[in-house]
Amino acid sequence: MSQVRVQSSAEAIRAGAKAIRRRNIEIVHAAGLGHIGGDLSAADILATLYFGVLSVDPEHPDDPERDRYIQSKGHASGVLYTTLAAAGFFPDALLDTYMGDGSPLNGHPDRKKVPGVETNTGPLGHGLPVAVGTAIAAKLDGSPRRTFVLCGDGEMQEGSNWEAIMAAGHRGLDNLVAIVDRNRLQQGARTEDTNALDPLDAKFAAFGWAVRSVDGNDVDALLETFAAVPFAAGRPSCVIASTIKGRGVSFIEDRVEWHHKVPNAEQTAQALEELA
After folding, report:
1. How many CB atoms lie within 10 A of CB 92?
2. Domain containing 95: what range?
3. I need a labelling partner for 121 at 20 to 30 A (CA). Which of 71, 78, 112, 202 fits?
């Protein structure tokens, strides 16, 4: 089985998350495209997973016994690509082609073009159902491999997700971990003004999941939470990760217009200074 790629400390993972945010700012500014708010909210989650939790090997990205990470909120491709590059799945220089003509680093991840991408995502409500399928496959194979899937909270309004949640609970998929990036903002509005989700924890629990809530921008808390999965034998695990959209950049934090706004040169310089 692939070896877990663990940094020596939570401090190192925090430093990695900061570097991921900086690189993310650079590539979105250069491309003139991206979803920077949701990228930044999820950076601590991805850094923790790739440097402290997942059993993956960038030298062998197709190892059949690897853990699976699926990014259902596929529009946040910037943070996925910067994390994969930081983890060694492809050279950092490739990030400079982000969203460019002919680049494999599309606005939505493509598993046929980018090492480490498990499934194509973009249309919301697709990643979690695929994750349920990979978890079922692991059970059928008698394999210890696990599946982690990151969903946006606005994405939880999609009916396909709730069909998948019900199926996972019914099948007792305790090798499945769903993480909800609960930044409470979606395109154009707050989630609770669009279609209220709370009590989200009780809704997952009603479908047979074991649920924990955590500060999704706190690496220590994330490490402790992921170390405890599965939270209950015979039940899939749900992590409701409360985050701040645009985390780390003062003028982006918790601002709905930064769902897909692009920083200009002055704003980029300020953001990089704040993340220094």
Report:
1. 11
2. 10-274
3. 202
Write out pLDDT tens, residues 77-93. Answer: 999 999 999 999 999 99
Provide the number of structural domains found in the chain.
Answer: 1
Written as six digits, the tokens of 165 are 């949640």
The Cα–Cα gap between 68 and 80 comes to 14
Using the Cα atoms of residue 130, residue 133, residue 137 and residue 142 in order, give the sign of their dihedral: positive
pLDDT tier for residue 1 given thresholds of 50, 70 and 90: very low
Residue 160 lies in a domain: yes
Phi, psi at 164, each rounded to 5°:
-65, -40
> d(Cα 109, Cα 103) in Å, to the nearest integer?
11
Closest CA to 118 of 146, 98, 99: 146
Burial of 150 (0-12, 13-18, 19+ CB in 10 A): buried
Provide the total of helices (H) and of strands (E) in the chain, helices listed first. 9, 7
Residue 33 is part of a domain; what is its CATH number? 3.40.50.970
